Amino acid sequence: MHIAYLALRALIFKANQFENSTKDPIAVQRKLLLQYLNRNKNTRYGKKYHFSQVRSIEDYRLLVPISDSESLFPYIERVKNGEKNILTKDKVIFFGLTSGTTGKQKLIPVTNFSRSKKAETMQLWSYYITKDHPDVLDGKVLAIINPDNDDYTQSGIPIGAESGHAYRNMPMIVKNFYAIPYNVFLIQDYESRYYCMLRIALEKNITTIATLNPNTIILLCHKLEKYKDELIQDIEKGTLSSSLKIPPYVRNLLFSALKPNPVRAAQLRGILNDKGALLPKDIWPNIKLIECWKGGTVKLYLKELPQYFGDVPVRDFGCLSTEARSSIPMSDSGAGGVLAIRTNFYEFIPKEDMGKDKKRFLLCDELEKGKEYYLIVTTPGGLYRYNIDDIITVTGFFNKTPVIEFVQKGLNAVSIMGEKLCESQVNEAFNRVVDKHKVLIDFFSACAEKTPPRYIFLIEFENGSKNVDKKELLKSIEEELGKENSEYKYARDSQLLKPPVLKVVKNGEFEKYRVMRVSKGANDSQFKVAELTADNEFDKNFAIEEELYLD
User: Fold this and answer.
1) Cα(522)–Cα(100) distance, rounded to whole angstroms?
2) What are the CA-CA distances from residue 380 to residues 62, 73, 113, 217, 297 (Å)?
3) How far apart are CA 496 and CA 347, in angstroms?
4) Which domain holds residue 284?
5) CA triplet 449, 453, 456: central angle to 5 degrees?
6) CA distances from 198 to 144, 151, 258 (A)
7) Residues 6+ apart with CB under 8 A from 426
8) 453 pairs with which residues across the strands?
9) pLDDT score, position 100
10) Residue 219 in domain
11) Are 51 and 41 in contact (CB under 8 A)?
């Protein structure tokens, strides 16, 4: 029997234990909280906020304040400088660097204990995947990650992308399941990096693709179309294009594993001649699953996957960040996951309370289906009542434990004339517009303009915009936004807001912008552009080929 399945069979007990715990989530949460506080009661943070006096959840709320990256900054700095026993009794072995896609990059401390707890949640997620798709590991995993960046604090603690650090340090027995060697992700030139990924993967039996942002998968498909002829030629000859910008040591490592493969090259040419394109569903016919985010603003890009992969199911990663892994999706349906009650302690602030002086702090047994909440976490890594600034919605319950889905970052809202337009509303409206007009896009975003007060909609169409009735598209965006947000409709009807503008972005502009942002430190595998921004200069990042206005 496959060694991976033997390992996953060993998780049946943990899965049963987790499912049983969902019948009484508050009991599990109370026990977990007291365990973490007792573990860290003698730290500087624990002494300041009297962890040793906490006997209940109510005590914890009275004694310990809500925190965020700003309030924890002085403590993180002390840990960076080599001081111990600051946030946790456990030694900090790594600082996870947040992606920085929607705000400043932050350092999140990681200990062996916190890593093991997060790994348990990851193992459960993997268990439910293999339970539904038992042949998912019969081939190779095409995972796309951001590399560890070999940076260190002055005291010698490594800093980097958590996914890259984990990928780099996997046991060899696990590495064998992955198609792409870690060194490929060290290639700084992104065209060359994606080419090398495809060069290697095209000779593998890929059975699953895993990366956080589905737009990364779409990007890889575009590169496949762009370089199909060169890739087939390299596979046939066992070469690696000399035009690629690859560090010599990486090129040597990759080239040493390459051999002429005329049989595979002939297969690919046959597919290209027969189908007219190289599509993943044809070149990797054994793909069983795609693993990526499905909730929040990435829903738009999921619509493009079927044209490349057919009806391959997609499993959500769950509410996952450098700070915490908060949910465990148990099926391919939807983007919801069961709250990971055995990993972190959770509190929830109703979305409508966030701007109030007096906020309600709810526990997981007080949530309602269909309602939205800010997520507050206490983690094994030393974050206490920490506001991640994520908004989640409750899509249902597993036993008595909520099933949650990511909606948006909390700060992604704009108000020019009191309309308080949220990114999630823009996303929902535009999703309906795309379905109605049957268009595919590479990029979409909305930005605010204050003079005159109006919204600008930026769209880069996948196959150009010649066959798109763009005026009707703009009318539909306006109509759907009015349905999503009555204040927006009022502001437009009352002429407080001027008619919106549609700016058609030239093809290739989003990719240029993405490369620029990644070169400045954004996480490549997680990169996403806010679909709503208050930056009234945002549209100047792109070359515009056409502007359309509503009458």
Assistant:
1) 6
2) 20, 18, 7, 32, 29
3) 38
4) 134-312
5) 45
6) 11, 28, 13
7) 446, 481, 484, 531, 532
8) 450
9) 43
10) yes
11) yes
Alpha carbon distance 157, 95 (integer Å): 7
Q: Quick one: 308 and 363 in the same domain?
A: no
CA 293/CA 15 separation, integer angstroms: 22
Q: Which two three-digit tokens encode residue 515?
A: 């490369």
Reported as a single tens digit per residue, the pLDDT across 181-210 is 999 999 988 889 999 999 999 999 999 999
Residue with tokens 């490929």: 184
CA distance 378 to 51: 13
Are 137 and 177 in contact, with CB atoms under 8 Å apart? yes
* Separation between Cα atoms, residue 91 and residue 97, nearest integer Å: 18
DSSP state of 320: B
3-state secondary structure of 328: strand
Whose CA is closest to 529, among 547, 510, 512? 510
Residue 37 has pLDDT above 80, yes or no: yes
Instruction: Give the total number of structural domains in the chain.
Output: 3
Is 202 inside any structural domain? yes
Q: Are 329 and 12 in contact (CB under 8 A)?
A: no
Task: For residues 21 and 86, give the distance between their C-alpha atoms in angstroms, rounded to a whole number.
Answer: 31
> Does residue 115 fall inside a structural domain?
no
CA 61 – CA 381 distance, rounded (Å): 19
CB atoms within 10 A of CB 132: 15
Give DSSP secondary structure letters for 97-164: EP--SSS---EEEEEHHHHHHHHHHHHHHHHHHHHH-TTTTSSEEEE--PPP--EE-TTS-EEE-HHH
What DSSP string describes 89-105? SSPEEEEEEP--SSS--
Count other Cβ atoms within 10 Å, centred on residue 13: 9
pLDDT classification of 450: cutoffs 50, 70, 90:
confident
Which residue reads 């990256």 in tokens?
Answer: 69
pLDDT at site 102: 40
User: 């996952």: which residue's tokens?
Assistant: 320
Counted residue by residue, the chain has a size of 551
Q: Are 195 and 55 in a shared domain? A: no
* 201 Cβ contact partners less than 8 Å away, ≥ 6 residues apart: 140, 142, 179, 180, 284
Domain boundary among 256, 287, 312: 312
Residue 150 near residue 111, CB atoms below 8 Å:
no
CB-based contacts of 104: which residues, under 8 Å, 6+ apart?
Answer: 69
- 217-253 per-position pLDDT tens digit: 988 999 999 999 999 999 999 999 999 999 999 999 9
Q: What is the CATH number of the domain that holds 476?
A: 3.30.300
For residue 532, give every residue at least 6 positions away whose Cβ sits within 8 Å of its Cβ, in sequence order, or none: 412, 413, 414, 421, 422, 423, 426, 445, 446, 447
Whether 123 is in a domain gets the answer no
